[in-house]
């Protein structure tokens, strides 16, 4: 019996031990940390939201089973140093993830440490677009990247036809990188930031006043504010005192302003008066029953208004809970170990050796990135570059004591008056935005710019060519005249305001400059515009905008011609040799057909063979002058004869008209019939030096570049065409119609 009992104990010991190990894989509680400033505008909201989320997670039977989710919050008290140190305290304990820090500047530092210790960092307020997953693999942004917010602003600027904006921002990583993204997005729309106005991270009222005075002296009246919650409203107060919230100005604020409105609503009357007419963005959260229930519940939790940060905080906690549940289902275990690198620092006063590595950090990170759930903010799912799917923003217009939603922006559909999630169920009219009440209580879209009091004149680039002085001519004294300049001046005279400008010659006057290079210099800011004979081609339209063409364009071929004089054989010139042969053969064939149809019944076509042959030949050619005497008796013969006489009439008329023209009008002839002739032969072709014609002939018409001869002036055109291919000249010149018409107006090229 003792041996039996011993065997039973050994047999059942292994499975019981394995069962114990499986149960212990799910701890009774899992800790997550949160680092933010409790009394900040965001902190007042997200603290309540995360507490509510933890309560709901622990009350839900569908997630975490017997494991309790605990969140430990640390107050950073508006201190950047505390924002770095508090996450390190969490990394000394068994904390599987950290929510925060609140600012992008400190999140960048903490993310480096988190990568080393394999502890995921989740933040919905650190939206710096330069924090990439390649550099910070354990940093996860659970709100939309600022890159999309800047793309929305760029679309708004393009929609209203503005071209330049002024960007005001805080001089830190968050501000600089956000404005850099705005510049990139504006460049894609052929717009730009004309003035980057940076403020110190904690600006005084004097700093703000000095900066806004500089902004007021600039030309652009489109002002984008990528501000902090701390000094954003102060900036509007100063702008109101400086008269910059009046008609003509446009103010576009990123989501910081909408957060203030949602959190502290209703705002004081003075504050709301300072922001009248401002356009603001807010992350779009679709309407749902879940969201409506949470909003009703929110009023019972706190008196603070619910902003989108509260919704993202709630969803972030649920996202972590679902990821933890998935982590445990995959066999993950919450365990920590010493970092061998930090172990070498034992004995220091900082006790850095106490920082622990999360052994299951990589598996937990994968579980977070694989979450796909519907939350208060919509679908929570990450793309390959770790951005949330379907970025969308509300476009708000501050009016009266509140605001009005004038439209929506989504990454895939752009601006619209209908949210992207409702377009499938709503007839979409194609309207981009509703009407806006701008600063100064006007609904008229501002022009967006003024002439600066201390601004420079517009620099207008004019191609300085060595040809066609009638189009553009740069005199020796620097004066620029010509047809294009006259058109430009006439257009300016139609404007209701004066435009100060200066014409600047582009080129040395000896070599024809590249118009494509002139257009490129406009995009780089060397010139503000270009005036001259600049042809509109696809490559150039990608770099700059063009007016409507005021001169007929298109490529033409000019070639030398030869005069054809009269001679004794001029009567043969109306028809080509082939035509003469065909006509003669037709006479013989028709005579043979008539003979076949008539000789059996008609005595006039009978007799000896020689007589029949002469009769047929004579009958056929006598029809040319309608002098045939033989009659046709058969019906088929009469039909053939009628048709033939009609053909003869046409031949006679054509011959007579052509011969009359040859004898009375000078005839010109050229071996070049068009561009097809030039493609078929191997003769040299002239083209204007520095023109797009060369690339067109080479890349579009597949003409070998060795055949192309650059010509700089009308005189070179004349000489090359007169010399011809045999004397080092060209067979033809390909150029634009306007230049060729000017060239032929006082020249006649004949060989």
From TrEMBL:
Bilayer topology annotation: Multi-pass membrane protein
Entry-linked InterPro entries: ANF_lig-bd_rcpt, GABAb_receptor_plant_PBP1, Glu/Gly-bd, Ionotropic_Glu_rcpt, Iontro_rcpt_C, Peripla_BP_I
Pfam families membership: ANF_receptor, Lig_chan, Lig_chan-Glu_bd
Keyword entries, A-Z: Glycoprotein, Ion channel, Ion transport, Ligand-gated ion channel, Membrane, Receptor, Signal, Transmembrane, Transmembrane helix, Transport
Location relative to the cell: Membrane
Main localization category: membrane
Residues of the signal peptide: 1-18
Residue ranges of every copy of the Ionotropic glutamate receptor C-terminal domain listed in the record: 459-750
Tagged with keyword S-adenosyl-L-methionine: no
Entry keyword Transmembrane helix: yes
Sequence intervals crossing the membrane: 579-597, 639-663
Protein name: Glutamate receptor 3.6 isoform X2
Species of the source: Camelina sativa
Gene: LOC104711692
């Amino acid at each position: 019996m003792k041996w039996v009992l011993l065997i039973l104990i050994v047999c059942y010991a292994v499975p019981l031990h394995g069962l114990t190990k499986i149960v212990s894989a799910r701890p009774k509680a899992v800790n997550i940390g949160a680092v933010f400033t409790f009394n900040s505008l965001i902190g007042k909201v997200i603290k309540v939201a995360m507490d509510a989320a933890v309560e709901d997670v622990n009350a839900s039977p569908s997630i975490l089973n017997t494991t309790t989710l605990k969140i430990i919050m640390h107050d950073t008290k508006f201190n950047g140093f505390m924002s770095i140190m508090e996450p390190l305290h969490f990394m000394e304990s068994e904390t599987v993830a950290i929510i925060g820090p609140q600012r992008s500047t400190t999140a960048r530092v903490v993310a480096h440490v988190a990568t080393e210790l394999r502890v995921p960092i989740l933040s919905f307020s650190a939206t710096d677009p330069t924090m990439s997953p390649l550099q910070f693999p354990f940093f996860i942004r659970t709100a939309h990247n600022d890159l999309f917010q800047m793309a929305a602003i760029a679309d708004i600027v393009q929609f209203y036809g503005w071209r330049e904006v002024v960007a005001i921002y805080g001089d830190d990583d968050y501000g600089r990188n956000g404005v850099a993204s705005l510049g990139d997005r504006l460049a894609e729309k052929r717009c730009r930031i004309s003035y980057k106005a940076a403020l110190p991270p904690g600006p005084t009222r004097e700093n703000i006043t000095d900066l806004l005075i500089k902004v007021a002296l600039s030309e652009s009246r489109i002002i984008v504010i990528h501000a902090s919650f701390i000094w954003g409203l102060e900036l509007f107060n100063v702008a109101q005192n400086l008269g910059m919230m009046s008609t003509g100005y446009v103010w576009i604020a990123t989501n910081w302003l909408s957060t203030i409105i949602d959190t502290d609503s209703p705002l004081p009357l003075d504050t709301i008066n300072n922001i009248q007419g401002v356009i603001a963005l807010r992350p779009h959260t679709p309407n749902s029953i879940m969201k409506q229930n949470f909003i009703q519940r929110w009023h019972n939790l706190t008196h603070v208004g619910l902003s989108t940060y509260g919704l993202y905080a709630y969803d972030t906690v649920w996202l972590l809970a679902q990821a933890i549940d998935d982590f445990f289902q995959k066999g993950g275990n919450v365990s920590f170990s010493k970092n061998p690198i930090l172990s070498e620092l034992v004995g220091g006063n900082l006790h850095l050796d106490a920082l622990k590595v999360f052994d299951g950090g990589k598996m937990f990170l994968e579980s977070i990135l694989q979450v796909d759930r519907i939350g208060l903010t919509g679908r929570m799912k990450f793309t390959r570059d770790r951005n949330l799917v379907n970025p969308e923003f509300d476009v708000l217009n501050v009016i009266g004591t509140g605001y009005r939603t004038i439209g929506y922006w989504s990454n895939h559909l752009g601006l619209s008056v209908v949210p992207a999630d409702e377009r499938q169920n709503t007839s979409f009219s194609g309207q981009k935005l509703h009407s806006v009440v701008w600063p100064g209580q006007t609904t008229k879209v501002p022009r967006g710019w003024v002439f600066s009091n201390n601004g420079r004149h517009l620099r207008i680039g004019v191609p300085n060519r060595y040809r066609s002085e009638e189009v553009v001519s740069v005199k020796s004294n620097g004066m620029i005249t010509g047809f294009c300049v006259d058109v430009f001046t006439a257009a300016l005279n139609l404007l209701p305001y004066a435009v100060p400008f200066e014409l600047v010659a582009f080129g040395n006057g000896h070599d024809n400059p590249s118009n494509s290079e002139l257009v490129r210099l406009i995009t780089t800011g060397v010139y503000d515009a270009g005036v001259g004979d600049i042809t509109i081609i696809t490559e150039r339209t990608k770099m700059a905008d063009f007016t409507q063409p005021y001169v007929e364009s298109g490529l033409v071929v000019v070639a030398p011609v030869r005069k054809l004089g009269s001679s004794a054989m001029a009567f043969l010139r109306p028809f080509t040799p082939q035509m003469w042969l065909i006509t003669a053969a037709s006479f013989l064939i028709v005579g043979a057909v008539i003979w076949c149809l008539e000789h059996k019944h008609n005595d006039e076509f009978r007799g000896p063979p020689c007589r029949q042959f002469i009769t047929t030949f004579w009958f056929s050619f006598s029809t040319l002058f309608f002098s045939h005497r033989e009659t046709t008796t058969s019906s088929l013969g009469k039909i053939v004869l009628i048709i033939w006489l009609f053909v003869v009439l046409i031949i006679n008329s054509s011959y007579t008209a052509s011969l009359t023209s040859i004898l009375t009008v000078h005839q010109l002839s050229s071996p070049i019939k068009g561009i097809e002739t030039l493609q078929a032969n191997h003769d040299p072709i002239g083209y204007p030096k520095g023109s797009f014609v060369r690339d067109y002939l080479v890349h579009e018409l597949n003409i070998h570049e060795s055949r192309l001869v650059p010509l700089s002036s009308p005189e070179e055109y004349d000489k090359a065409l007169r010399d011809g291919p045999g004397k080092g000249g060209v067979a033809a010149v390909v150029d634009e119609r306007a230049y060729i018409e000017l060239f032929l107006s006082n020249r006649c090229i004949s060989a």
